[in-house]
Amino acid sequence: MLKYQQIANEIEKYIEDNKLQQGDKLPVLETLMSQFEASKSTIIKALDLLERKGVVFQVRGSGIFVRRHKRKGYISLLSNQGFKENLEDFHVTSEVIELEVRKPTEEAAANLNIGRDEDVYYVKRVRYINGQTLCLEESFYNKSIITYLNSEIVSESIFDYIKEGLGLKVGFSDMYLQVDKLSEEEAGYLGLKAGSPKLCVETIFHLTNGQPFDFSKVTYNYEQSQFFVQANSSFL
Amino acid sequence: MLKYQQIANEIEKYIEDNKLQQGDKLPVLETLMSQFEASKSTIIKALDLLERKGVVFQVRGSGIFVRRHKRKGYISLLSNQGFKENLEDFHVTSEVIELEVRKPTEEAAANLNIGRDEDVYYVKRVRYINGQTLCLEESFYNKSIITYLNSEIVSESIFDYIKEGLGLKVGFSDMYLQVDKLSEEEAGYLGLKAGSPKLCVETIFHLTNGQPFDFSKVTYNYEQSQFFVQANSSFL
Question: Quick one: which of A82, A90, B40, B147 has the most CB atoms within 10 Å?
Answer without folding.
Answer: A82
